[in-house]
Amino acid sequence: MQLENTQVVGDVIKRLRRAEGQLAGVIRMLEAGRDCEDVVTQLAAVSRALDKAGFAIIATGLEQCITAGEDGNAALDRARLEKLFLSLA
Predict the structure, then answer these.
(1) The CATH number of the domain where 79 resides is what?
(2) Residue 30: domain span
(3) I want to staple 19 with a disulfide (CB 3.0 to 4.6 A). Which of 41, 49, 61, 75 is the partner?
(4) Does residue 70 belong to any structural domain of this protein?
(5) What is the DSSP string of 18-57?
(6) For the chain, what is the domain count?
(7) What is the Cα–Cα distance from 89 to 85, expressed in whole angstroms?
């Protein structure tokens, strides 16, 4: 499956870059000996950002699959989409 929706791809890239910055911040916090609660809070934010990026990609894949399915040739079958979705759950 290749993502065809450039708006979604752009949004996902922004989200991943933000997560990348948050992760770098977590590393700096650990190196500086910051409080465990602060580190875990930021790590949870990184995890949520990654999850949202993954779900956006899967949602776009589902949309493309449904659209392609209307023409009779689905881009991804149900089992593969389910596997992708569950990989993030």
Answers:
(1) 1.20.58.1000
(2) 6-88
(3) 49
(4) yes
(5) HHHHHHHHHHHHHHTT--HHHHHHHHHHHHHHHHHHHHHH
(6) 1
(7) 7
Q: Is residue 1 part of a domain?
A: no
d(CA 56, CA 70): 21
**83 falls within a domain:** yes
Can you list the pairs that 34-40 forms with residues at least 24 positions away whose Cβ atoms lie under 8 Å?
A: none
The tens digit of pLDDT for each residue in 27-61 reads 999 999 999 999 999 999 999 999 888 888 888 87
Task: Please give the C-alpha separations between residue 23 and each of 50, 56, 64, 73, in angstroms, as whole numbers.
Answer: 11, 20, 31, 40
Q: Is residue 48 part of a domain?
A: yes
pTM: 0.70
Tell me if 76 sits within 8 A of 1, measured CB to CB.
Answer: yes
Rg (C-alpha) for the chain, rounded Å, is 17
Type of residue at 48 = R
Nearest by Cα to 49 from 13, 83, 9, 1: 13
